[in-house]
Design goal:
The protein has 204 residues and is α/β, with parallel strands linked by helices. 40% of the residues lie in helices and 19% in strands. It has a domain at 11-148: Nucleotidyltransferase, domain 5 (2-Layer Sandwich), CATH 3.30.420. It is globular.
């Protein structure tokens, strides 16, 4: 007899990216179907998490050079502070980033298992994640359920953005200098603290 609940998973991928900009009000925030223009991820923060106890298994942080073709938004740059010049000196090519991410996925999910993701509005990050992986011909399988701290914040705490949510639950972050790995850690910590609160209230 299988005593595991329906939808049971053992690992989660927490993901967050900073980007060169976004296409507003689009199914794919990385690509403008009308113009053919696109935006790129300029950094990735990824965390492999044990879905049972929410403990971190492995982390990966990458900064990616501007490819010279993607659109570049000064507003986006002002949020994450990663300039083209900085990325040219300190970042890696997207191909190398995809290889590093691919190795992480293979190590923890193998070549064909579905990946279940956690993040703050993860549909945004997934669009850029898929664009990066597909640029090297890699098609990954994702579970159809997303753990979204934006929804948690709105429903439980009445917040509308990650800055307010993180502050409310006691996570320290510089709102003027977003970092992809720190934001991924923050999203994970929101889930940990929300679960702890629920356990305290309901005796879990």
């Amino acid at each position: 007899m299988n005593d595991k609940p329906r939808g049971y998973v053992t690992r989660l991928l927490v993901l967050d990216c900073e980007t060169s900009g976004l296409v507003c009000n689009s199914d794919d925030p990385s690509y403008d179907a009308k113009t053919g223009q696109y935006f790129q991820a300029v950094s990735w923060g990824l965390i492999v998490v044990d879905a049972i106890n929410l403990k971190t298994i492995e982390e990966l942080y990458l900064e990616i050079k501007w490819d010279g073709k993607s659109q570049w938004s000064p507003k986006a740059e002002s949020i994450h502070g990663l300039t083209k010049q900085y990325l040219e000196q300190n970042g890696i090519d997207r191909q190398d980033a995809v290889e590093a991410i691919g190795n992480l996925i293979i190590n923890h999910w193998g070549p064909s298992s579905a990946i279940h993701v956690l993040g703050h509005n993860p549909s945004f990050d997934l669009a850029f994640f898929k664009r990066d992986m597909r640029s090297e011909g890699i098609e990954l399988k994702f579970g159809n359920k997303r753990i979204d701290t934006n929804s948690v914040g709105f429903t439980v705490f009445g917040t509308h953005n990650s800055d307010d949510l993180f502050e409310l639950v006691g996570i320290k972050r510089d709102p003027k200098n977003h970092n992809a790995l720190e934001d991924a850690r923050g999203a994970l910590e929101v889930i940990r603290r929300t679960r702890a609160l629920a356990n305290e209230c309901f005796g879990g």
